[in-house]
Amino acid sequence: MRLRFQPWQLALLVVALCVASVGVVRWWRVSAPYDAAHLVALLPAEKATVVYIDTGLLRQSGLLDLVAGSKAVEEPDYRKFVDQTGFDYRRDLDAVAAAFVDNHVYITLRGRFQWKQLNAYAESQGGECRYSVCNMPGSNFERNISFYPLKSDVLALAVSSDPRAVTSIGPGGRQLQLAVPPEPVWVSVPAAVFNHLDNFPDGTRAFLSPLTHAEKVTFAAGPKGDRLQIRLEVACPTPAAAADLAKQLASVTSLLKDMIERQHMTPNPRDLSGVLVAGAFEQSQSTMIATWPVERGFIEALAAGQIQ
Asked: Where do the structural domains in the chain lie, given as residue ranges?
């Protein structure tokens, strides 16, 4: 006996399938974990400087409080923000990814948010919230802040002249295609940034100037044994270019060691010269990889403002 559906039954079945599909998609969006790769992939813009920080891991290690400093010295405006929104990055932020390009900033944050308080804060600052997207004025007329919830524990935020720039963040559109390093803190920088070295510390310029011809540059930091390690990965046009870059950086490191020895000094792991002279450089096909071990004392000195 062959089953025969009535037209109304077929229509009901189609509606049920559509509702089920929407439900599955919504469930997937809510339940899917937003790890580093996911947070970064949601960001728009090409040729951007991209930063990722696993603040949850830094909090567990004690480094977050070390770098952030004492709560007693926080700016009054920030304390006011914490009081009105219930959000304090020291306690509530687990991870953040940001893309900086052409005076626009796009950010995805994973953590614990009080959405009603955040919306009320935007409105109290002269902003408005429509269809879950909030915007408010920033420090000047060219800086508008906009945000919306990607899910219950993920916030999309943008700072731009466009008051609805945050709508560029999310699935679809021109998202970043970027290999995510395994370290908890990393920065991916377009090589063009190194054409202007005046903004970098004096002691680093000799190391950074050879990077101007690179295709992509990534700095990463994470634990390595009982110390931290800074890793530099440089994508070069050819294997020969990667080998040449490794030789240049090794030569600069050797020159720095000789200068310290001529002054009858010993490299100090608590200052920048002590970190730089410990560098190691290698080539892997068209990639140059450099590593520098970092003692906790250096981080402490850096956080205390003792390193310029």
From this structure: 34-168, 185-303
Residue 73 has pLDDT above 60, yes or no: no
Convert the pLDDT of each residue in 12-39 to its tens digit. 545 545 444 444 344 444 456 788 989 9
In terms of Cα–Cα distance, which of 207, 175, 203, 200 is closest to 108?
A: 175
Threshold 0.90, pTM exceeds: no
CA separation for the pair 218, 282 (Å, rounded) = 15
3-state helix, strand, coil in the chain (%, to 5): 45, 25, 30
d(CA 188, CA 98) in angstroms, rounded, equals 10
Domain covering 34-168, topology: Protein Transport Mog1p; Chain A (3.40.1000)
Instruction: Label residue 158 left, alpha or beta by phi (over 0 means left) and psi (-120 to 50 means alpha).
Output: beta
